[in-house]
Amino acid sequence: MPLSEHEQRMLDEIESALYAEDPKFASSVTKQRVGRPTARRRLVAVLGFLVGLALLVGGLMVDVEVGGLRILSFIGFLVMFAAAAFGMFGPRGPNLADASSPASRGGSSSRAKPGKPSLSERMEERFQRRFDQDDH
């Protein structure tokens, strides 16, 4: 289910606050995301999946069994699974989250300003405001 506009804005605020408070931690977390595969990687994955599908269907037509298992169909399934995993979990392309960090946009230093409340303090204040609004 997609996020509402309000939830998306809140998520963006939390992300930018995280970058402002601890850019080193934020960049290490964003590097662990699964990125979008490159066009070549997607092409190889699709071709591998189609070859696996052909082996799976072909194995049903050819009567080659080992211990009651249609071995050609099983190999086809494994090829399909490997192709899907290859397409999803490979090396990532450029990370868009790193390009949108405040440090890369010329933002402030990694330390918060003395008068500026921390992320947890701001979140507490927002929660308290919402809680007070719900009571009235």
Automatic annotation (TrEMBL):
This protein's UniProt keywords: Membrane, Transmembrane, Transmembrane helix
Q: Where are the transmembrane segments?
A: 43-62, 68-89
Where is this chain compositionally biased, Basic and acidic residues type?
A: 119-136
Residue spans with biased composition (Low complexity)? 99-118
Entry-linked InterPro entries: DUF3040
Q: Which Pfam families match?
A: DUF3040
Region annotation Disordered: residue ranges?
96-136
Record-given protein name: DUF3040 domain-containing protein
Q: Which organism is this entry from?
A: Gordonia malaquae NBRC 108250
The organism's taxonomic lineage, starting at the top: Bacteria, Bacillati, Actinomycetota, Actinomycetes, Mycobacteriales
